[in-house]
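Handout, page 2. Input:
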Amino acid sequence: MKSIVIYYSQTGNTKKIAQALQKGIARQTGQCDLKRVKETKPEELANYDLIGIGSPVWSSCPTPNVIEFEQSLPPTLKGKHFFFYCTHGTLPGRCVIRGVQPLQEQGLTVIGWKDWYCGSCVPGHAKPWYTDGHPDAIDIAEAESFGAAMVDHSRKISKGQTYMIPTLLSPEASDQIYGVGHPFIFPAGRMPDMKNEGLPGAPPMPPKERKQGPAMPTTMGYVIKLEGLPEGPKMPSSEMRINAAKCTGCGLCAEACFCNNIDASVFPPVFKSQECEHDLFCEGICPTGALEFDFRPPDPKAAQMPGGGLGKALDLAEAMGRFRRLTKEEDIGWMTPWEVITTHPRHKVIP
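Output:
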């Protein structure tokens, strides 16, 4: 059996889980490759029997580049065994559904899925955060065991024990286990087609509507469009800009942007559009702080947030045995958000 684990990771947490999965698989088979999504060509997967795909959770979904990768897999991969995993800060929402469905809809065999809590390095999130400290040694050991279990499942299914292929949870059942997720994205339906920005077979948006826009739809945008929901508040409220006096022309911001939304052929680089994913990884990777954004200042009222919606959701997850609290709620740094206590470059590696 030849295996591979593919992942996208910004802060390193999804990569840590991928490495643990690789170790668990290799312990059973003697081999498991590990590659980033952007380094992997879909047609290369024909050389593998067991394929794992991992993503952080954004707006209750895998990241757009992971979904686009899944939807680009060729039909020649039918018969291969896949598993999906995701990492998240507080609530995964329906990310498992939205990560597994694109594979199933192409006739691929998905033999398992799993999620892990991880610390959060996101602008606007308090530091310390609810889930800081994860993934720890227990999480890593669990990931190794899950990788080994996927090998065992794959072998048994290949021998005809197809009853071991799990059934994907309904949206309602998923909500009971994983929580609702993003406050502006409640339902889950079929995954939108990343190329057509709607349901499979829908016509592409007219070019004038995507003029100078990012390379792919935003996570929140395509789910809102999929569900026919009204748009929530536009986030963030400030524009991103590049300060020429601070810019060294290194081009890291453009290299880091999977939306291809930064033109580094000019100096200073320019944003093609303000309507991109707004994950602000470009701001974090800049070594000099040349990419500027007006972050919302800490709100004194935020100190009253303990015991609120996120805390209650994690209380429930803890009661279900899904979450182990490593950070006390009274220690959460509501007045010290991530972007306040970090310095440039906030991120050290381009995923």
